[in-house]
Amino acid sequence: MEKMDVGSLAHLYNQPVPRYTSYPTVPFWQTPFDVNTWKRELVNEFQASNIQSGISLYIHLPFCESLCTYCGCNKKITTNHSVEFTYLDAIKKEWQLYLDLLPQKPVIRELHLGGGTPTFFSPENLERLMQIIFAGATRHPQHEFSIEAHPNNTTVRHLEVLHALGFRRLSFGVQDNDAEVQRIINRIQPWENVVNGTQQARSIGFESVNYDLVYGLPKQTLAGLTNTVEHVIGMKPDRIAFYSYAHVPWTSRGQRLFDENDLPSADEKMQLYLQGRAMLSAAGYADIGMDHYALPGDTLYEAWKSKTLHRNFMGYTTQHTQVMIGLGVSSISDAGTAYAQNTKALHEYYEMIDNNLLPVFKGFELTKEDRVFKRHILDICCTGSTRLLQDYKAETDTYSQPVLHKLAADGLVEMNGDEVTVTAIGRNFIRNIAAAFDLRLQRKGTVSDKPMFSKAI
Fold first, then answer.
1. Which end of the chain is less congested by CB atoms within 10 angstroms, N or C?
2. H or E stretch covering 120
3. Model pLDDT for residues 382-404, shown as the tens digit of each residue
């Protein structure tokens, strides 16, 4: 049977599926979640792992000065910068709750500041934040620190302070360079700001610069996207995240502020994806998996080539830690055997912190079955292959095998005995392939009384 091309396959597999930053995925987590279960699993995993290998730390800084209407992140819009001090005081208290819980001083191997807009915070307050963290922890010799930055408000002073604190990775939210798209998503961002920020970061000593691009935005056209990607390629960022716009107005009210008729049709969005993908490939960027591209020589590319790539709630990473602690409103933590998410409401976060309570409102304790299939999903996402086990063979045969055989028939995977390998064309459909091992989704089926996930493309 003749194999389909990428465009035909993209139409076929453009279905709602998770992004698999976790398994089980967040819609299957429990609310409320017993915080004592989280504490127990965190301490057990912390003790069981090699303490000196280090942990990951994610800190959510939720403030933005204006609302980008496309954004699905947890954010708080304000121009009042005095909120920085109140928020850092709460982060300090939350971090101390974790330090009191852990039996030894943690070693930070990976640290990421996300948002919101982390560079909403002044350089001095970002420095204070790091002082808070390292008053109770140590840096791993091979640490990797990264930050998300807005080109409009990231100053040379920000970059100098961050570099002095050990940050070497920087991600700029570019999204789209077209003036009309920027207007409708309320993110006016002159290209010169991206160029200047990139050049300044590199001159100061940042080793890896990432650009976030989004396809499928309102008013986005093929010509406009082509122009954006041409500009981006000209700057040669070390990494590029080329995301599908996730239209989820049921969770992101800001997306209701523009007319849905301005969104590209399904066919138009597919063309945007195929065009961007082709241009990045022609410019020498390797598709390392699920929306992410890297130039040869970047550490993410090297980890992909050596099959040491890892994936967690911060996305793809070169660091593979057993424990990840999330601080701040809506942050997610991962102890391998359990997940915990902080409350999404800022006032609730402050109230719980003031009462010396970990602000966990949602979470999940993984079963043995969950851990087995989590491993399959991570393998598919990070190394492009996985080996089927005798553990839960009946479940695999019932739920995974039928999907895998369909994927194989369409040329997305190859099956050789117990080995499942993603093909070159299959790398465009990692989310769909990973879903074959999502037993909770497969058991639930596709029927749902409300939307759960964005479409794959």
1. N
2. none
3. 999 999 999 899 999 999 999 99
Q: What H or E segment, with its residue span, contains residue 321?
A: none
Q: Which residue has the tokens 């109140």?
A: 86
Distances (CA, A) of 98 to 107, 143, 308, 353: 13, 20, 29, 12
CA atoms within 13 A on the CB side of 239: 28
How far, in whole angstroms, is CA 196 from its chain's centroid?
A: 25
Average pLDDT over residues 193-205: 98
Which stretch of DSSP H or E encloses residue 341? strand 338-342
Q: Model-level pTM?
A: 0.93
Verify cis geometry, omega within 30 degrees of 0, for the bond prior to 24.
yes
Helix residue ranges per DSSP H, 355-447: 368-382, 393-395, 401-409, 430-434, 439-444
Token pair of 154 as six digits: 């990231």
Residue 374 near residue 307 (C-beta atoms within 8 A): no
Task: Dig out the tokens for 310 from the structure.
Answer: 């890892």
Q: At what angle do helices 35-48 and 83-101 cross, to 10 degrees?
A: 60
What is the token pair recorded at 143?
């640490």
